[in-house]
Amino acid sequence: MARAQLFDNALLPDGSCVALLVEDGRFAAFLPAGAAAPEGVERVDLGGKLVLPGFVEGHIHLDTSFFGEPWKPHKPNTSGFSVRERVRFQTETIATADPMRERARRQLELCLRQGTTTMRSHVMIDAEVKLSHLEAVAEVRAEYGDRIDIQLVAFPQSGILTSPGTAELLDAAVVAGCDLVGGLDPATLDRDVEKHLDVVFGIAEKRGVGVDIHLHDGGTLGVYEIEQICHRTRALELQGQVAVSHAYALGQVDAGLLARTAELLAESGVAIMTIAPPDHAFPPVAPLRAAGVTVFSGSDNIRDSWWPYGDGDMLRRANVIGHRSAFFTDAQLAEAFDMVSAAGAKALGLDDYGLVVGAKADFAVLDAAHVPEAVVAVPSARDVYKGGRLVARNGALVQV
Amino acid sequence: MARAQLFDNALLPDGSCVALLVEDGRFAAFLPAGAAAPEGVERVDLGGKLVLPGFVEGHIHLDTSFFGEPWKPHKPNTSGFSVRERVRFQTETIATADPMRERARRQLELCLRQGTTTMRSHVMIDAEVKLSHLEAVAEVRAEYGDRIDIQLVAFPQSGILTSPGTAELLDAAVVAGCDLVGGLDPATLDRDVEKHLDVVFGIAEKRGVGVDIHLHDGGTLGVYEIEQICHRTRALELQGQVAVSHAYALGQVDAGLLARTAELLAESGVAIMTIAPPDHAFPPVAPLRAAGVTVFSGSDNIRDSWWPYGDGDMLRRANVIGHRSAFFTDAQLAEAFDMVSAAGAKALGLDDYGLVVGAKADFAVLDAAHVPEAVVAVPSARDVYKGGRLVARNGALVQV
Known about the structure:
2 copies of one chain form a homodimer.
Chain A: E1 4-11, E2 17-23, E3 26-32, E4 42-45, E5 50-53, E6 55-60, H1 83-95, H2 100-112, E7 116-124, H3 132-143, E8 149-155, H4 166-175, E9 180-184, H5 193-207, E10 210-215, H6 219-235, E11 242-246, H7 255-268, E12 270-273, H8 285-290, E13 295-296, H9 314-324, H10 330-339, H11 342-347, E14 363-366, H12 371-377, E15 382-386, E16 389-393, E17 396-397
Parallel strand pairs in A: 1-4, 6-7, 7-8, 8-9, 9-10, 10-11, 11-12, 12-13
Antiparallel strand pairs in A: 1-2, 2-3, 5-14, 14-15, 15-16, 16-17
Helix pairs in contact in A: 2-3, 4-5, 5-6, 6-7, 9-10, 9-12, 10-12
C-alpha cells in the first residue's frame, strides 16, 4: 500500500486552512481542515502554521564553502577585484580545509534545515582540479538524494580557453553527471566571447543539457554577452533551459537598454539569477519580472574564499531581495518570495513543484500569518518536509 | 553587602578567557578564568561563550512601531516619497492600533531580548499629538528603567515652523524629560534652514541638552545643512553632544566634498547615525570613520507606517552594515560591530560603557569564536545581562 499522510490544519499562502493529503511523496488532495484521515493514513497536525513550498536554492557552490570549519579570516585582493586572484586564494585555502565531502555535507544540511528542498549547485571544473570536485559533490548528492534534489552545473571557474583542456573536461563532467554546462565571463576571463560560448552551447547541444553562465562583466559589455547568449539559446531552441547568473550589467545600464534586453531575455526564455548583492548594482527585479523574465535567486558564496557571509537561508534571501529592491507592499513581498520558490522552480525546469495536487510534497512549516509576514520576520523555527517526510524540525536536521 | 557575581569562563573579544567580577552592577575586576568566587559572590559559568558589550540602539521610534500587532499591509505613497504623506498614514494607522504604551513595551522587549542595553528613541512632538507620545513613552521608560537605559529625543515629526506651536512643545518636551532636542529636514520640510536650526540649537543652549537631527535632504543641500549644524555645534561648544541621523547626502556627493565634510564633522564632534539602508545611498562608513567621525547605528523603523521591515537586532544591524559596506576582513567586521557598540556609546555620551573595569555590567553572551564570526553568523540564542542581572535567556525575555 502507498505511504500516505494527512497534514491537517495547514495554513496556505492564499489564507485557506486545509488538510494536505500526501501519497507516495506527492500532494494527492487538498481536503477541508479537520477531514478524517483515511484508514492507514498517518495524521500530522500542523496547528494552523503557515505552509510554504520548499525553497529553491538556485545558485550555490557546494565544493567551496568553509561553513562549519574554524574561522578563516578573509584575504582581501591585493589590488582591485580579480577572479583569478580569488581562485588562487580559494585553491590555497581548500588545500588545508576539511575534505570536500565533509564540507559539502555541512553546507547541504545548513540549507536543508532551513527549508531548501531543491538546489542548483555549481561545481568547479578546470585543468587543475579536473573532475575531482564533481566526484566528491556527486557522491554527496547521492547520499542526500532522498532529502534534497540537486542539479549540478559544470562550472569552468578558471575560464575555458585560458585553462587548456577545460572544454573537454566540461563535456566529460556532463557525461559524468552534471545536469547543466556553465560558463564564466567570456569577455574578461577568456577574452573571446564567441569561442567561449561556442564551447558552452556546443556541449549543451551535443549532450542535450541546459546552460547556466556566471556573468560579472559589467555595463554594455555584459549586456552584449547577454544578447549573444539569448541569440544562441533561440538558435538551439533551448528556451527555458538557460540562465545567466549575476548579470550585474543589467543593473548598470540605462532604462532603455535595460527594457530592450529584458524583452529579449523574456522572448528567449533566458532566466536571470541574482542574490541581490548588498554592495553593488544588480539586475533590477521588478522591471525584469514585469517584462516577463524569470528572475530567481540563490545563496551563492557561503563562508568561502570570496567573502565571509552567507547563511544558506532562502527565506532570509527573499528578505534581502525585498530590502534591496525597496519592496514594501504585500504584493512586492510576495514577489520576493516567488524568487526563492516558484520562479526558482521555473528556472530549474521543475514541473512538479508547488502547493498543488500532483506536485512533490516538499514544504516548510513556520509561524507566520502569510507570505509577506514570513518574508519580513524570517522565523528561524521551521519544520521541513521532503516528499512528505520530515527532514528538519524546528530548524534542526532530523537524523535518519 | 554589595550584590556581587562572578561570571566565569567568559570569552572576551580580545580572545582571552576570564572571570568577570561584577559588584553593584558594574565590572569590578577581570580575574583569570577559574578564579575562586569570593565568599557571598554568586558564580555564573558562561561556558566559554563570547561576551559582547550590551548593544547600543542609537536610533529607534518607540512610539510608532506596530510590531506584535496583526499584520498591517504597507500603504505606498501616492506619488513619490513625501514625509508629510507618510506622517498622515502614520496618524491614521496609529488611531486604530493598540495603545502606545503596549506597542512601546513590545518593541522595547524585542530589542532587549536580542542584546540591546542602551537606546536612543525619538518621540514625535507636533501641534496635534503635543506631548502625548512622550508621556506614554516616558512611562514605559520608567517601567523598564532597571533593564535598559533610554535616551529620548523630542522629534518634530511634522516640522517646526510649519507646525505652529511645535517650538514651544519641543522646549516643553525637554523640560518634561527628553534628553535631547531633535530636528527634521530644515530645508525641505520647513523651507528655512536657519530658523529651524535657531529653534533646535536655541533649546539645546537654553536647556543644556544635546541635539539629534533627522536629515534626509540629499546632495549638496544636505551637506550645506550638515555644515550649518557643525558651525552651530562649535559656536555653542556642543562637541560630542550632536548627531545627524541618516545624512543620506554624505553618500551622494563627490569624494572631495565628502572628505571636507568628514573633516568638519570630526572637528565639530558631530556624530553620524546610519542604519545602512538597503536600497539607496548612505554615508560611507569607512572613509567617515577613517576621518575620525563617530558613526553609529540604529534600527530606525520597525514594522511601522514607513516600511514593513525591522527586527530590533543590533547584531543583525552590524551584519547589514558589513554587507552594505563590503566589509569582509576581520578588522572591517569588527568596525561594523563597533558601530552598534562602542561608537554608539560615544555618540550617546556614555562614559561607563564597555567590557572594562568600572563600566556598567551590560553584556550579551552568545556562541561565536569572536566578533567577526558573531557579525557574520548573527546567532539568535543570546543571554543578556543588564548591570549583571539576567534580563534575557536564549533570546527570550526573563520575566521579572
